[in-house]
Amino acid sequence: MLAANVETEPGEEMLLALNLESQAAWPEFTRELEALSGVDLGYRDEGTLVVAAHRDDAAELRNTYEFHRSLGLEVEWLTGGQARRLEPHLAPGVSAAVSSEKDHQVDNRQLVVALREAFRRAGGRLHENTPVEAIDVVAGQVKGVQVGGRSRSADMVLLAAGAWSYDIDGVPPVARPPVRPLKGQVIALQMEPRAPVIDRVIWGPGIYMVPRRDGTLILGATVEEKGFDSDLTAGGIFRLLEAAWEILPQIEELPIQDMWVGFRPTSRDDAPILGPTPVDGLVVATGHHRNGVLLAPLTIDAVSAFMLDGTLAASIEPFGIGRFNAGAIPVATAGNKV
User: Fold this and answer.
1) What is the per-residue pLDDT for 326?
2) How many Å separate Cα 32 from the centre of its chain?
3) Where do the DSSP E strands lie in the chain?
4) Helix axes 108-121, 13-37, angle to 10 degrees
5) 50-76 in b/e burial notation, b at 16+ Cβ within 10 A?
6) Cα distance between residue 152 and residue 54, in whole Å
7) What is the pLDDT of residues 307-322, one digit of tens each?
8) 193 within 8 A of 183, measured Cβ to Cβ
């Protein structure tokens, strides 16, 4: 979900600016990546609805709506009837909704396929299913990585291992990104592609529902502090189905296609960690929490610019690793090029 608007919470005003900048880049990023890879990203721009499942939810939704409007976000208040005209299968109890036409979606699995293919076509060498055992650092200077029992030299290394970023060996404490996994259970149901139950992303209390072009309907996601526990649980799946059914009763008839667990890479302040580190030549791009796909275009551009010519984008300066290292040596900047 590319939901820079409806997902904004109090205290995330600085992160909102980053999210909006990246969201605006997504249409062009989609066109460019599809052309480079030949892969359809499944980008959809029907917009997003946030609904109140019952009248009791409407007051909380109204408060969130007013907060978003105070930030200048383009969201619209709808009655339950207006929401059902957009999505006829919404439950009769849905009493209000907020529409965000600028919050879109992309198929994240297709995105990974496209990035892999574009990388290969550009001459990149991808070592799949080959864990990085350690990053080689000597006297504060990165020297390469250890992969598959072999040392591979490199002048620069980008640490972008998602929820596993903290666990890569060899990184000094001052440069180790404080990232932990935040478990999320997800369900995929199967709609009839020619007659989908919903046409746009729908959020409700404790649930989001994302329709794909092939008829897949994603229901997600739990939020659990359980480390790398990959177990699907009866309670987690039940809560997702119950929350979705309250908003969209027709899911009761849909077959289950798949269920899985994912791990959000979450930092101490739920914001990404981007840019150089106190280790000369080591750059990080991790800790994106729930905004990794949304922030992909901006992350790619900003990190690439720094690694290629030392330019540190102003937009990512507040999100460097230095914010977690009080009293640590300064990170490299554009004027202190790695």
Assistant:
1) 64
2) 20
3) 48-52, 76-79, 96-100, 132-138, 141-147, 150-153, 157-159, 179-190, 201-204, 207-211, 216-220, 256-267, 273-276, 282-286
4) 60
5) bbbbeeebbeebeebbeebeeeebebe
6) 58
7) 999 999 999 999 999 9
8) no
pLDDT of amino acid 148 = 84
Please give the Cα distance from 222 to 292 (Å, whole number): 17
CA atoms within 13 A on the CB side of 75: 28
Sheet holding 48-52, edge to edge: 76-79, 96-100, 48-52, 201-204, 207-211, 216-220, 179-190, 256-267
Per-residue pLDDT reduced to its tens digit, 212-236:
999 999 999 999 999 999 999 999 9
* CA-closest candidate to residue 281, choices 107, 141, 95: 141
Q: Which residues of the chain have pLDDT under 70?
A: 326-338
- Digit-coded pLDDT (tens) for 121-152: 999 999 888 889 999 999 999 999 999 889 99
Q: Does pTM top 0.90 for this prediction?
A: yes
How close are the terminal C-alpha atoms of the chain, in Å? 34
Find, among 181, 262, 258, 179, the residue nearest to 222 by Cα.
Answer: 262
Q: Which residue has the tokens 């990184």?
A: 171
The rounded distance, in Å, linking the Cα atoms of 91 and 82 is: 13
**Domains, the chain, ordered by start:** 132-178+269-324 (3.50.50.60), 179-267 (3.30.9.10)
Tokens of 159: 């640490």
Determine the 3-state secondary structure of 184 from DSSP: strand
